[in-house]
Amino acid sequence: MFVTMNGPEDHNHSHTCFEEIVDPSYFELSDYLLLEDDFEEDSSVKTMASSAENFTGSSNGFPCREASERINSNIRCNSGRKSKTATEFRVAFRTKSELEVMDDGFRWRKYGKKSVKSSPNPRNYYKCSSEGCLVKKRVERDREDSSYVITTYEGVHNHESPCFVNRNYKQMSPAVPPNRGSPIPLSPNFS
DNA sequence: CGCTTTTGACCAGCGC
DNA sequence: GCGCTGGTCAAAAGCG
Questions:
Q1: Which residue minimizes Cα–C1' distance to C6?
Q2: A window 110-129: Cβ near strand C (< 7 A)
Q3: DSSP assignments along A68-136, one per residue
């Protein structure tokens, strides 16, 4: 995942994510969840990694990247175990950020905003702008701590991140096979 | 002009 | 059937 100082509101910079990576201290990933479709019980929501300390200590200094890699790893595992289709995955992030929406490398089109009863903060709905890609994401502030943002991805991208394409980073994302993207973009190898 | 956001309306699912 | 709630649609407006 790539983090920039801009959100969808600022499309002048939406494709410059490699140039404006935010200070890691500004953004803190605290939780990310791998959600399964059949929410029969709470235990189906699995916290794959929970503490912020796990990520702030990442060697590359970007907590999101490690989370991103772990998630893609987990999704591949889950895919094999449960034979899920590419559009059945749901991944939720809980991030500490002042930014409502963080640039993850993909282009999103906002299609709805709704106040939900379970939260005092409105929930925003986005679809991937890429033609034929049905990935959606929901973004809302944590009702218990508005300094946290909960981002839920639904589905798997069937295309590369525009960042990879635009910056010719295709060869740097071997974990994303053709026509089988990831719910969030894998970050390039900075080393 | 093309793309995005905004926002009220609409729809489906669920509980009563 | 009715009301509530969450999710989506689509027209209008804004922006570069």
A1: A116
A2: 111-112, 114-118, 123, 125
A3: HHHHHHHHHHHHHHH---TT--EEEEEEE-S-SS---SS-EEEEEEEE-TT-SSEEEEEEE-STT---E
